[in-house]
Specification:
Elements: E1 2-6, E2 11-16, H1 29-43, E3 49-56, E4 63-69, H2 75-84, H3 89-100, E5 108-111, E6 124-126, H4 134-140, H5 146-151, H6 156-160, H7 180-183
Antiparallel strand pairs: 1-5, 1-6, 2-4, 3-4
Bound molecules: zinc ion.
Length: about 190
């Protein structure tokens, strides 16, 4: 089973991939970009926060935080706050693009079970036990998970173009005007 939490107007969903990963200063990522920035935003009166939930998801080092605000906020500033509070950039950029494209559920959290003692029920549930891998769901077409289709239904490569997993070689770029053929160089077109 998977349960789906779609960010409500008064919620920030923060995806912290590895809370203890060192940031540039050596300070743990979650500390530098989540707890400290959240504290500073509250202190500065920029965010009015009702409660904070930290959830450990599929992998032991992967955390999600839900910041429940005192009042609803518009979607765009919510998405920006999520990024400011250290949420995963790849997820964040897709959330922003989905919002721009007019999707009504740009940020969501999928968990194997409901969050214990959480203040509200989840927004949806499906029978999938495995992680919803976008690529697989997308290929399933009409047979894809109906909840995935309802809330996602498109892949990041529809938003940004396909991504490739092949290793990339380093192409040094000159300062100033960069020739486009250098940008377009890839592993298979090596000169
Ligand atoms: Zn599903």
């Amino acid at each position: 089973m998977s349960v789906w939490y779609v960010a409500h107007g008064d919620e920030l969903l923060i995806d912290v991939d590895d809370y203890m990963r060192p940031s540039k200063s050596g300070c743990p990522w979650g500390e530098a970009f989540f707890r400290r920035r959240l504290r500073d935003a509250i202190t500065a009166g920029k965010l009015r926060v009702r409660e904070v939930w930290l959830i450990n998801s599929s992998s032991a080092r992967h955390y999600h935080a839900i910041v429940r605000l005192c009042a609803a906020m518009q979607t765009l500033p919510r998405l920006i706050w999520q990024l400011h509070l250290g949420s995963d950039l790849y997820r964040g950029r897709a959330d922003l693009m989905r919002f721009y494209r007019g999707w009504d559920s740009p940020s969501l959290l999928i968990l194997p079970q409901p969050i214990p003692y959480f203040y509200r029920p989840s927004d949806a549930a499906c029978k999938c036990r495995e992680k919803h891998i976008t690529e697989q769901q997308f290929q399933l077409g009409a047979a894809a998970c109906p909840v995935w289709r309802r809330y996602r239904g498109a892949s990041p490569w529809e938003l940004f173009g396909p991504s490739y997993r092949e290793p990339e070689r380093f192409v040094p770029l000159p300062l100033g005007k960069v020739p486009l053929d250098l940008i377009m160089e890839c592993q298979t077109c090596r000169k």
